[in-house]
Amino acid sequence: MKNDDWDVLIDRIETGACTPFLGAGACHPYIETGAAIAQKWAHEKAFPLGDANNLGRVAQYMALNLDGELKGDPRIPKQKMVDYLKRCRRPPFDDPKDLHATLATLPVPIYVTTNYDPFLTNALKHARRDVHRDFCRWNKWLEKRHKSERYSPTVAAPMVFHLHGHDEVVDSLVLTEDDYIDFIVNVSQNSNLIPPVVQEAMTDNMLVFLGYSLSDWNFRVLFRTMQNYLEQSTRRGHVAVQLPPDGLPDPARAIKFFEKYFGGEEITLFWGTCEEFAKTLREKRSARLGATATAP
User: What is the DSSP track for the chain?
Assistant: First the structure.
């Protein structure tokens, strides 16, 4: 990212015209990667297939409940995920260098995430913001059992919207392969599954993707889901934080490929960790705004 890109990003943040998007990498090291979780579960359940680092596939296998008396139950891996999240170490929300603490200082009304954890909600509470937590009703059962509430987010009372569900509603988690397929199909066919206020935040604002890997299944599903919103966007120019590609024969050409690919959607790539991005953002906001950069 160039200095001009940072200037535009900070302008959008300060006017509330920015929507942060959080992925699994934003929770590192407090939550293990999906691949690490999948490998542990695969070992526990004697997963018989080859792709033991694919969490969606391992969760699908667990949902079949081959070793139990009951028929397949998608709640089995979802409850296991919720139980795991309860045991995870929490980020230090009182540390201004923490990613979630940094995000909680941004004067934006809506945050969107594909994570299940409560870290961002808790960081906003720690920052004394009256946060509202909600999730996508991505199937008919969720629509019926959990009625959507009308909510008008503000900077003082922001919303954290979980596209793939959250830990307080086990059935809301998009976790198995079937869940991902149902999510894509249902959301593409019924845009009302995402509240209008969240749709506006995705089409009217600059989007900043944090914690997604270009090769990650979650990111590919998200990018496909977001394609329609990116095409409708009235705010050209988005940002995606990405780790430099490792282990490839020609990393420089790989970076060039990704930049050209995402450049078609007017997405500028920041090559580095979420922590590095947050540090640079804090420094540039402080230089631009002074002490007011630490509070929304």
Answer: --HHHHHHHHHHHHTT-EEEEE-GGGGTTTS--HHHHHHHHHHHTT--SS-TT-HHHHHHHHHT-TTSSSPP-THHHHHHHHHHHHHSPPP-TT-TTSHHHHHHTS--SEEEES--SSHHHHHHHHTT---EEEE---SHHHHHHSPPPP----SSS-EEEETT--TTSGGG---SHHHHHHHHHHHHH-GGGS-HHHHHHHHHSEEEEES--TT-HHHHHHHHHHHHHHHH-SS--EEEEEPPP-S-S-HHHHHHHHHHHHHTTTEEEEES-HHHHHHHHHHHHHHHHGGGGG--
pLDDT band, very low/low/confident/very high, at 58 (cuts 50, 70, 90): very high
Question: pLDDT digits over 237-290, tens only?
Answer: 778 787 766 666 676 777 777 777 665 557 788 888 899 999 999 999 998 887
Dist CA 242 CA 274 (whole Å) = 8
CA distance 21 to 86: 23
d(CA 184, CA 218): 11
Q: What is the pTM of this model?
A: 0.90
Measured CA to CA in angstroms, residue 31 lies from 8, 27, 34, 267, 268 at distances of 32, 6, 9, 27, 27
Q: What is the CA radius of gyration of the chain?
A: 19
Cα torsion angle, 195, 27, 225, 62, sign: negative
- pLDDT of 218-247, one tens digit each? 676 676 666 666 666 555 577 878 776 666
Query: How far is it, in rounded angstroms, from Cα 225 to Cα 219?
Result: 10
Residue 49: count of CB within 10 angstroms of its CB: 11
- d(CA 159, CA 157) in angstroms, rounded, equals 7
Retrieve residue 139's tokens: 């199937």
